[in-house]
Amino acid sequence: MAYQHKxxxxxxxxxxxxxxxxxxxxxxxxxxxxxxxxxxQKDGIEFGLVIGAGNLFRGLKSExxxxxxxxxxxxxxxxxxxxAMAVKEALAGxxxxxxxxxxxxxxxxxxxxxxxxxxxxxxxxxxVLFAGGTGNPxxxxxxxxxLRALEINASLxxxxxxxxxxxxxxxxxxxxxxxxxxLTFDEALQKKLRVMDQTxxxxxxxxxxxxxxxxxxxxRSILExxxxxxxxxxxxx
Length: 237
What we know:
It is a single chain. Strands 4-3-5-2-1-6-10-11-9 form a 9-stranded mixed beta sheet, sandwiched between helices. Strands 7-8 form a two-stranded antiparallel ribbon. It has a single domain (7-236), classed as Acetylglutamate kinase-like (Carbamate kinase), CATH 3.40.1160. The protein has 7 helices and 11 strands. It is globular and about 50 Å long. The two termini are 15 Å apart. It has helices at residues 27-42, 69-93, 115-123, 141-151, 185-190, 198-207, 222-227, and strands at residues 7-12, 46-51, 99-102, 111-112, 128-130, 156-161, 166-167, 179-180, 182-184, 210-215, 232-236. It has 237 residues and is α/β, with parallel strands linked by helices. Helix 1 (27-42) crosses helix 2 and helix 4 runs parallel beside helix 6. Strand 1, helix 1 (27-42) and strand 2 (46-51) form a beta-alpha-beta unit. 45% of the residues are buried.
């Protein structure tokens, strides 16, 4: 199964770009992400990337701070641009040419979102880091990841998280939580499992994009994780 997918979309949690809750960005963590992604290119996998901004700002917390939710989401979307720019620089340091695209008009920093150009870059083994979420408030970066996966014709969406796949409950708080090896989209939706948000899962189901959830860094190679039994959870049509 490891080489079944020639083109994938990787979704990274923003928290993976720091080593402790007190940090925003960690040079060591960003470097680790870049080195892992570089292994994908080395193995000939074409990929795009969507990064969250949980290390910087979450729109869901905006109301607690007295912000309008729309403004909060916009701040979060800008946070993903910062994260993408950092990963792009780290990728350059390990010999991988990458591009950052965003739907927001900030062309002095990143490229405007262009589906055809993104596909062309990815086909040339120059990954595209999709920042800015969907460009709209009230949508998570999970939904953005599914949307970008569809736009680049990826057959698999890989979600790299801090837990080893999809569980029946939160494994960080419930010691009885059971990890699933494989699920159908219907099972994931019916059980309301915390895989990705329901909109993202429903969109992936509708268009037949499989999802693989695993713990980032275990193993270091994303491709190896995709082909290793027990390394994560597959969600399939």
